[in-house]
Amino acid sequence: MTRGTSGGQAARWLSALAIAAALAGCGDDRVVARGGGVGSDTLAPGSDTLPGSGDDTGGTTVTPTGREIIVLHDTSRDLQLGVTDSATIRVKVIDYAAGGPAESAGVKFAIATGGDLGDASLSSLQAYTDASGVASVTLRAGAVANVRYEIEVSSAQAASVRFGAFVADAPRGDIRVALAYEGPIAVRNVHMRLVDGAYTCGQLNAVNPPTDVVGEKTLLGVGAGDALWTNLPVGKRFTVFATAESQRGTLAAAGCLDGIVVVEGQENKVTLTMYLLTLNPTGTYDSDSVFDFTGAIPGALGDLVDSISLLFSSPGHFLIDQVKKLAAAYVGEWITNAVFGLFEDAVADVIDDWMFNHSPSWIQSILTVGQDLTQVVNRLEMLAELRISKLGSDYRVQGVLFWNGIVLRWRYGCPAEGQPGYDPACGRYVFSLADFQNTEFPMDIVEGSFTASLQDFDQLDIDNHTIKINYGKLIIFVLNEMVLPALSGEHNLVDAVLSFVNCHAIGQAIGGWGIGPVSISEEQVENFCTSAVTTIVSPVTFILGGLAIDSQLRLSGHATIRDDDSDLKVDRIEDGDFLGHFESDGQEGNPFTGTWEAVKKLAP
Predict the structure, then answer these.
(1) What whole-number distance in Å separates Cα of residue 447 and Cα of residue 383?
(2) d(CA 496, CA 502)
(3) What 3-state class would DSSP assign to 363?
């Protein structure tokens, strides 16, 4: 065997091997390889010799290098499509250096010619090869007939290849789509999509609408005209899918109509009915509710709150009232009122004048901040984790509030607006449930639950429900944990007054005085002082203790639910309001109002 003969046999063997490798990923496709590696000659299909080898009898064998793009359909003739048809373009990239298919190689596709004459398009301008070296895109023919396109495919380290595609004419007809909608809210920007009839309405989803469309139209709203598609091929079926926005610009309505036929030379008019979509509020939220309880406390609890207010606003009248109650227990209320009516206002005014204007500064400080006591709790902010779940249908839900904190506002000691150091956040106190459990008067707040209905797409109507909250204990908490510590560092009224009076210093100053055997020790003076303070403060402490009466809120409400990203899942609840009343000691108080909002927690 001569060297030339051996070279020719080797060339034929390698050529067959290369073609077999190309065919391995092609299935039943007929393959015509076009293009070649960078810096090498091209291996022509069907050749018995390697590039550069000369004839069978001599020459030098050259091994291809770089990469080659192989189109996986017959490129010896144009790819044939009808108007509105689509076809999958598949190519394979061979990496000669690696000795196999090029995996994860970027492949670019482009309509090189014909794009200015027709409306054909590619589903993507770039794709990546899989493990077999294959990449694919979809060629959409469009509605313009009798146009020839050239498609160019390119990839790094490979020569680009081109092939033709021809869009042929067919009998034509038109489809006109009118809209129908009777939802409770106005919608706008109706986006209508004409897709191939292979898509049915059961396959389409408003959140993820089809992107492989024949044509698209946008109407400003219902009643703003029809959508018209012309020159569609006869014999094909189409589906129309529409979505619409709320006035806030988020997904709100959708509709679909499939099986639409094209009639030759005619306009087929159909009506697509859109329906309001349903928002899904299920999930976990951070909730913030603010209540105004001014004048809303009933019964004995309300009377005690009034007494506390009177104590700090007019201590003279408060003391006279206490004395009158004691006297009435012995001589009767009629006689007491007759006697006290002669002088009580004058005496009360004298006491008020002394306490507000001439008493020690610590007494005046207590009176000043005490006047804020009920104002602090009149505007109560409650924090909770809100969990919403469905109740048997898309339109009924249950909410459970797990209270985890209370926010109280008291600006004692804060610079006023316009003063140096002003801070709007100053005086905002956030207390967790652990704070309440660690105090002398726990709050007894655990959780509250409600049921609600979804109305008119984004409206949440909350049914009448109760929240257990001990308002009286809350006043005690404010006094013991906010007011008194701010004034004295103590956490109850007796200790606070004792810290101001300083009985120990009084004992040192007075103790040891006397004549002969008649004298009094420092310890005795201090004990007398402490007993006197305790005696004076005890009625107030008794009244405060009476505040620990069970009470609850009964309320209903409303809010607006918001979907921020058009996935039909609620992200926020806003513009919430409450209307309710207190129930305490078997009595119902005056109405109170409240506001609330909630923000969905991010998934961990």
Answers:
(1) 11
(2) 10
(3) helix
| Residue for token pair 């027709």 | 118
CA distances from 586 to 86, 107, 548, 550 (A): 76, 79, 15, 10
Q: Note whether 216 and 153 are within 8 A (CB).
A: no
As beta bridge partners, residue 399 has 388, 450
Burial class (CB in 10 A: 0-12, 13-18, 19+), 500: middle
Which residues are 291's β-sheet partners?
380, 594
How would you label 48-84 residue by residue, b for 16+ Cβ within 10 Å and e otherwise?
A: ebbbebeeeeebebeebebbbbbbbbebeebbebebb
Half-sphere exposure of 134 toward its Cβ, with a 13 Å CA cutoff? 14
Q: Which residues pair with 69 in a beta bridge?
A: 93
What would the pLDDT profile of 1-46 be if each residue is shown by its tens digit? 434 434 444 443 344 344 444 444 444 443 444 444 433 333 333 3
How far is the C-alpha of 594 from the C-alpha of 471, rounded, in Å? 15
Give me the residue label for tokens 């293009």: 35
For 399-454, give the secondary structure using H, E and C: EEEEEEEEEEECCCCCCCCCCCCCCCCCCEEEEEHHHHHCCCCCCCCCEEEEEEEE
Q: How far lies 116's CA from each of 25, 149, 150, 462, in Å?
A: 35, 10, 12, 59
Closest CA to 254 of 217, 209, 198, 196: 209
Q: How far apart are CA 341 and CA 320, in angstroms?
A: 11
CA distance 472 to 475: 5
Cα 283 to chain center, whole Å?
Answer: 10
- DSSP structural state of residue 274: P
Q: Answer yes or no: are the C-beta atoms of 158 and 66 closer than 8 Å.
A: yes
Q: How far apart are CA 129 and CA 155, in angstroms?
A: 10
pTM more than 0.90: no
* Calpha distance 190→254 (Å, rounded): 9
- Closest residue by Cα to residue 129 from 91, 74, 87: 91
- Tell which residue, 32, 344, 307, 342, has the closest CA to residue 161: 32
Cα angle 268, 272, 278 (rounded to 5 degrees) comes to 165
- Model confidence pLDDT, tens digit, residues 94-117: 999 999 999 999 999 999 999 999
CA distance 286 to 597: 8
Contact 491, 482 (CB under 8 A): no
The H or E element spanning position 312 is helix 299-313
| CA–CA gap between residue 338 and residue 519 (Å, rounded) | 45
Measured between alpha carbons, how far is 451 from 398 in angstroms, rounded to an integer? 4
Break the chain down into helix, strand, coil percent, rounded to 5: 25, 40, 35
Detail the DSSP E strand segments found in 262-323. Answer: 267-273, 275-276, 283-292
H helix and E strand count, the chain: 13, 29
pLDDT score of 392: 85
Encode pLDDT of 158-191 as tens digits.
999 999 999 988 888 999 999 999 999 999 999 9
First to last CA, the chain: 75
Counting Cβ atoms within 10 Å, is residue 20 exposed (0-12), middle (13-18) or buried (19+)? exposed
Model confidence pLDDT, tens digit, residues 249-288: 999 999 999 999 999 889 999 999 999 999 999 999 999 9
